[in-house]
Design brief:
Elements (H helix, E strand, L loop, with lengths): L2 H15 L5 H10 L7 H11 L14 H15 L13 H17 L17 H9 L12 H10 L39 H7 L7 H25 L16
Length: about 250
């Protein structure tokens, strides 16, 4: 950018900030922007600067050469977001560099329309890489949760009975089962040391018991309780001591 072109750019800036361009300012701007051309992207950089609100609402926007350089680079880089070089078969390094630079320059300047689609990776990992991952216990091709919460929930589901909601006391996933009833300190009931049998069956994928099976299980538990109580009573049955009345004349 020479002083004459810098003066034109300053004239474009004055339409936004009412500055008074001078010959000295044109020489200074051309020195700061000597490697940039005066083109549509340089003028667009000025427009972008003045469409952005300042951090301080009371401050006055005043563009400087480094603003033009930075914003112009962003405008051109945005056109290259989806660019992917398509090599020719058997091309040499010199041919590759020439074609690559030519395509980048054409798209960045806007002479050629930028690619509209996003390039996507295709194919899968190498067979040896998959074998190594599986040997270390990783599952290749599994669905990855979208959030940390889903990943944590998936981990809890694999943690035995606590990985499912309890059908008996409705304890949530990851929470221990509760004893029926409650108090002021434990309104939801005391924590069970072992999960309910129904929860264990649900975690193992077993079907729920039928009404007849539940009745038989209840009867079995009652009989086991009766036998245990009988044994306790038998162990604690101590005969009363025999009281012997003293005979006459005995001390």
């Amino acid at each position: 950018m020479n002083p004459k072109e810098a003066a034109e750019l300053l004239g474009h800036c004055s339409a936004f900030d009412n500055r008074k361009p001078s010959q000295a300012a044109a020489i200074a701007w051309s020195s700061a922007l000597h490697d940039l051309p005066f083109d549509a992207d340089s003028c667009a950089a000025v427009a972008v600067y003045y469409t952005t609100s300042p951090k301080d609402p009371d401050a006055k926007l005043w563009i400087l050469p480094h603003h033009v350089r930075t914003l112009r680079s962003k405008i051109r880089s945005k056109r290259l977001e989806n660019f992917r070089y398509e090599p020719l078969p058997d091309e040499t390094v010199r041919e590759y560099l020439a074609r690559y630079r030519g395509q980048v320059q054409a798209i960045a300047s806007g002479r050629v329309a930028p690619p509209s689609g996003r390039p996507a990776l295709e194919g899968g990992p190498h067979r040896d890489f998959v074998t190594e991952l599986e040997a270390r216990g990783f599952e290749v091709g599994r669905v990855v949760p979208d959030s940390d919460e889903e990943a944590l929930l998936d981990t809890v589901r694999r943690a035995g009975p606590l990985g499912v909601e309890c059908p008996a006391c409705r304890a949530a996933i990851g929470r221990p089962c509760k004893i029926p009833g409650g108090s002021e300190k434990q309104p939801l009931g005391k924590t069970r040391t072992k999960p309910h049998t129904a929860r264990t069956r649900a975690a193992a994928g077993e079907s729920e018991l039928t009404a007849e099976q539940r009745a038989a299980e209840e009867q079995r538990r009652r009989e086991a309780s009766r036998l245990a109580l009988a044994r306790m009573e038998a162990d604690g049955d101590i005969p009363d001591a025999e009281i012997v009345e003293p005979q006459d004349g005995a001390a």
